[in-house]
Amino acid sequence: MIPMIIEETSNFTNINEEEIIDFIAISESTPGPFAVNIATFIGYEQSGILGSLFATLGVVLPSFIIILLLINILEKVKENRFFKSIIKTVMPIVIGLIISTTIQITLKSLFNITNLDNIKKEFSLNITPLICLLISIILISLIYLLKKKKLAPIILIVICASLGITISYLV
């Protein structure tokens, strides 16, 4: 979904790719479904509160209506052998898409690389996200080792967001 969001948003709005990646980061770390969060942020950026309302409805309503229509069919086919094999076939594709998106966002945020064909021309190290990543890993590891238990996800999000904000202003 993320590559499609980046492409569609770049083509049909005045939001640049860096802003889209910021929206993705915020949408991933705020509570609620990712698609709803990013639609709300982009809608607000484009047209204020009314834009965020219509963008959110545009994301939620089609899925809601389709699920209402398909729920009876899915109940009938969930134990079907053919249906199960389709799900098993799709899983590696989904994993590949997730890995591809992770690589694209990492290359863009850490090394300013947007096109793998021109990797030598575009390469420049962006130190801020790299520092944030390293400090986050060290800090979270230390907290984990000292407390000997898992941290709540909200605490991890707050720690990483605070580090990102602090380091971006310092660097």
How is this structure best summarized?
83% of the residues lie in helices and 0% in strands. It is mainly α and 171 residues long.
Describe what this molecule looks like in 3D:
- The protein is built from seven helices and no strands.
- The protein has 171 residues and is mainly alpha-helical.
- The chain folds into two domains: 2-126, no CATH class; 127-171, no CATH class.
- Helix 1 (2-12) packs across helix 2, helix 2 (17-29) crosses helix 3 (34-77) and helix 6 packs antiparallel against helix 7 (153-170).
Overall morphology: globular
Number of helical segments with 4 or more residues: 7
- Share of helix, binned: over 70%
- SSE string: HHHHHHH
Low-confidence stretches: none
Q: How many extended strands?
A: 0
Give the rounded overall mean pLDDT.
81
* Oligomerization status of the protein chains: single chain
N-C termini distance: 32 Å
Q: Key features?
A:
single chain; 171 residues; mainly alpha; 2 domains; 83% helix; globular
